[in-house]
């Protein structure tokens, strides 16, 4: 058993009232009883850590001055006072190891080897910065160093790190992942979900809590149910230890053993490093500092991590005081050059900003169904698309609740685990936020995850990971990385699952730049669009309507692999009198209405967007130009629904062609009822579509 494992299991900290006011460093020193802090580090390691600490300290001191001068704008969060943690952690990592950071992430990036010139330029919002001026202080990253980015969302680094850890495991690269978070992050649900997921899958992740003891103004003692965050590790059957985060030697030795354990395949570790930030929460903050003055002075005067490592260097005679001064002078010169580099950078252009949102979509030639006699159901077509793509590309894998042995509750993934094994078809815990975040992390780390949401109503639990992480990751990093992620699953009503299992939520996602939203209506489209989504380099929300699982029937689907272009609508039926723009399950109902009305002398053209974002405006407008009337039909609520966006496009670009007002038809403005008659009354039916078209033709 490793030394730190014994500490974690048998030697918990007994904090006195005095220690609860800030005397934690002494307690942690007693805890390890000399086993780590009396061990010496090699001279070159000490010099590397010391250099990193000086670079971090001086970088943030200069950043503070630049902020006060108005050169660094927006906000920035100083790492001064916590330098020992990042520097000692970084000294244990290989270049190809991953690191996910938080809003106080300057130190983490520097310790992993980030270029301070590119960092300074980014802080100044310049095009020459790491993220082209689009990310700023809270989003600095360097994918070449596997720095997955600082993050403005508390705790978000943890789910992303599970994904990077899973990618490393699936690719067999023996990498480790470090997830930095603060004490407040340990009260987030994703902390517990990520710890559990990493433990269950034995992922090579180090969860490092930098417990600086305060949120913006509130002590963690007032918000955290345990004396020490590390105690929570026991609930997930992983080692957890609290250490003195201002002692670089202790941090280094503890992290070294945790890294060795992770590389050996023994899974994650929780390390709580007790520390203290010297400044306020952020450089922008101008609040009364609630921390006791004596406590604040004590941490600065007695526990300065830079002075402590200097004392260690002198006592060990690792290198001379002259060398320490040389290091400081070299770092100062480097940072002055970095500041000048930043100042000379150009402002980013609007064009580059827009180009950073999406990775270009691949061009595809769809085969059509002419001459195809083989027929598949909607679910069979989806299954075949995943089967073929997983066979073609080993980076493609599927995960979600019950997708493995059972094939999912709607049997969309039936047989995939038998074919590709448990590593590539993974049953997850019921923790949507984290397994979607794991998908994001795996996508940015070299994999192509397909994440199934068992019932799409549960997507509400994942919104941070989709909206703040997946959708924004490429943009925040200046348009450099790709996020090839598919999040798919069944939405909508019609099978009596009531209010919390029957919603159609596509409008949420079409509102978010960075997300692609796809909604097929036929088995042919389902296979081709899912194939295209898996191959796309953007996060794709892939919507499968439950009505099509059960009412869609079978239709011709080519046996060979094919992809349908993303952003290309389909003219499902030609007509001359009125255009019906219908989505997903409403397409077959619109086609039924068109056949009925044909016998009454009304010629209906049916356009299926297939991709809601990006939207093929041209096909829709060409149809409206021809028919001069339009009805937009979707299963979701009419109020605020996707149809309003289509109507706006037509009103803005095709108003002169209209002979009648634009009409929208969607679900009634109520949650989905359980009663079958009421459910049928809520969702637009063929009869409602027919009646509405007749009214528009008067």
Q: Which outline best applies? A: elongated
> How far is it from the N-terminal to the C-terminal residue, by CA?
83 Å
pLDDT < 50 runs, ≥5 residues: 1-37
Structural category is alpha/beta
Describe the strand arrangement of the main beta sheet, using strand numbers. Answer: 8-7-9-10-12-11-17
* Proportion of residues in helical segments: 40-55%
Query: Can you count the helices?
Result: 26
Instruction: Compute the average pLDDT.
Output: 93
How would you characterize the largest beta sheet?
7 strands, mixed
Number of strands: 19
Radius of gyration using CA atoms only: 28 Å
Strand content: 5-15%
Q: Which descriptors apply to this entry?
A:
698 residues; alpha/beta; seven-stranded mixed sheet; 26 helices; 42% helix
Give a description of the structure.
By secondary structure, the chain is α/β, with parallel strands linked by helices. It contains 26 helices and 19 strands. α5 (83-90) packs parallel to α10 (248-263) and α17 (432-443) packs parallel to α18. The protein is elongated and about 95 Å long. The N and C termini lie far apart (83 Å). Mean pLDDT is 93; it is low at 1-37.
Topology (elements, then pairings):
Elements: H1 3-10, H2 17-20, H3 24-32, H4 43-68, H5 83-90, E1 98-100, H6 106-111, H7 116-123, H8 157-171, E2 177-182, H9 189-200, E3 205-211, E4 240-244, H10 248-263, E5 269-274, H11 293-302, H12 305-316, H13 321-344, H14 350-355, E6 375-377, H15 378-392, E7 396-400, H16 416-424, E8 425-427, H17 432-443, E9 448-452, H18 463-476, E10 486-491, H19 506-510, E11 516-518, H20 523-535, E12 540-545, H21 546-551, E13 554-556, E14 570-573, E15 578-582, H22 586-598, E16 604-608, E17 611-613, H23 617-627, E18 630-637, H24 642-654, E19 663-667, H25 676-682, H26 686-696
Parallel strand pairs: 1-2, 2-3, 3-5, 4-5, 7-8, 7-9, 9-10, 10-12, 11-12, 15-16, 15-18, 18-19
Antiparallel strand pairs: 6-13, 11-17, 14-16
């Amino acid at each position: 058993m490793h030394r730190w494992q014994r500490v974690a299991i048998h030697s918990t900290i007994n904090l006195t009232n005095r220690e609860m006011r800030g005397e934690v460093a002494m307690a942690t020193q007693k805890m390890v009883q000399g086993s780590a802090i009396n061990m010496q580090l090699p001279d070159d390691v000490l010099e590397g850590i010391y250099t990193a600490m000086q670079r971090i300290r001086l970088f943030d001191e200069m950043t503070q001055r630049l902020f006060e001068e108005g050169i660094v704008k927006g906000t920035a969060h100083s790492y001064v006072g916590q330098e020992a943690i990042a520097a000692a952690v970084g000294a244990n990592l290989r270049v190809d190891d991953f690191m996910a950071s938080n809003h106080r992430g300057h130190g983490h990036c520097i310790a992993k080897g980030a270029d301070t010139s590119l960092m300074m330029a980014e802080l100044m919002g310049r095009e020459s910065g790491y993220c082209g001026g689009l990310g700023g202080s809270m989003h600095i990253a360097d994918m070449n160093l596997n720095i997955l980015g600082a993050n403005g969302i508390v705790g978000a680094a943890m789910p992303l790190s599970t994904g990077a850890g899973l990618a490393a495991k699936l690719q067999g690269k023996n990498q480790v992942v470090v997830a930095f978070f603060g004490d407040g992050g340990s009260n987030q649900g994703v902390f517990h979900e990520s710890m559990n997921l990493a433990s269950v899958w034995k992922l090579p992740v180090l969860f490092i809590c930098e417990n600086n003891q305060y949120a913006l103004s509130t002590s963690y003692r007032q918000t955290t149910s345990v004396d020490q965050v590390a105690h929570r590790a026991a609930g997930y059957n992983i080692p957890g230890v609290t250490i003195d985060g201002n002692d670089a030697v202790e941090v280094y030795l503890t992290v070294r053993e945790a890294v060795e354990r992770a590389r050996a395949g023994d899974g994650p570790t929780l390390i709580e490093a007790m520390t203290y930030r010297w400044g306020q929460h952020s450089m922008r903050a101008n609040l009364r500092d609630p921390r006791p003055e004596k406590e604040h002075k004590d941490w600065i005067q007695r526990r300065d991590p830079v002075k402590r490592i200097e004392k260690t260097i002198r006592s060990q005679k690792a290198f001379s005081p002259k060398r320490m001064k040389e290091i400081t002078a070299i770092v100062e010169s480097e940072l002055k050059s970095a500041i000048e580099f930043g100042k000379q950078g150009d402002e980013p252009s609007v064009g580059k900003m827009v180009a950073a949102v999406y990775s270009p979509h691949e061009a595809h030639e769809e085969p059509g169904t002419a001459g195809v006699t083989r027929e598949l159901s909607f679910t069979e077509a989806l299954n075949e698309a995943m089967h073929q793509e997983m066979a073609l590309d080993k980076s493609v894998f599927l995960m979600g609740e019950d997708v493995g042995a059972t094939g999912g509750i709607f049997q969309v993934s039936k047989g995939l685990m038998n074919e590709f094994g448990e590593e590539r078809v993974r049953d997850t815990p019921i923790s949507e936020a984290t397994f979607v975040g794991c998908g994001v992390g795996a996508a940015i780390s070299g994999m192509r995850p397909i994440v199934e949401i068992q019932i799409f109503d549960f997507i509400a639990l994942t919104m941070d990971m989709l909206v703040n992480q997946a959708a924004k990751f490429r943009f925040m990093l200046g348009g450099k990385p790709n996020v090839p992620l598919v999040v798919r699953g069944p939405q909508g009503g019609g099978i009596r699952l009531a209010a919390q299992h029957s919603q159609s939520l596509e409008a949420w996602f079409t509102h978010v730049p960075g997300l692609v939203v796809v909604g097929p209506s036929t088995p042919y489209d389902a296979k081709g669009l899912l194939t295209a989504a898996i191959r796309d380099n953007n996060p794709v929300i892939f919507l499968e309507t439950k009505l099509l699982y059960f009412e869609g029937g079978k239709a011709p689907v080519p046996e060979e692999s094919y992809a349908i272009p993303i952003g290309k609508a389909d003219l499902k039926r030609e007509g001359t009198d009125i255009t019906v723009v219908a989505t997903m399950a409403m397409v077959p109902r619109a086609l039924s209405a068109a056949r009925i009305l044909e016998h009454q002398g009304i010629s209906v053209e049916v356009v299926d967007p297939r991709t809601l974002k990006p939207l093929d405006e041209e096909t829709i407008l060409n149809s409206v130009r021809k028919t001069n009337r339009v009805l937009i039909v979707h299963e979701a609520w009419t109020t605020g629904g996707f149809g309003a966006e289509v109507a706006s496009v037509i009103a803005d670009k095709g108003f002169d062609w209209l002979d009648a007002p634009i009409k929208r038809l969607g679900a009634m403005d109520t949650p989905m009822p359980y009663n079958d008659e009421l459910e049928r009354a809520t969702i637009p039916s063929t009869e409602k579509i027919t009646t509405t078209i007749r009214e528009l033709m008067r």
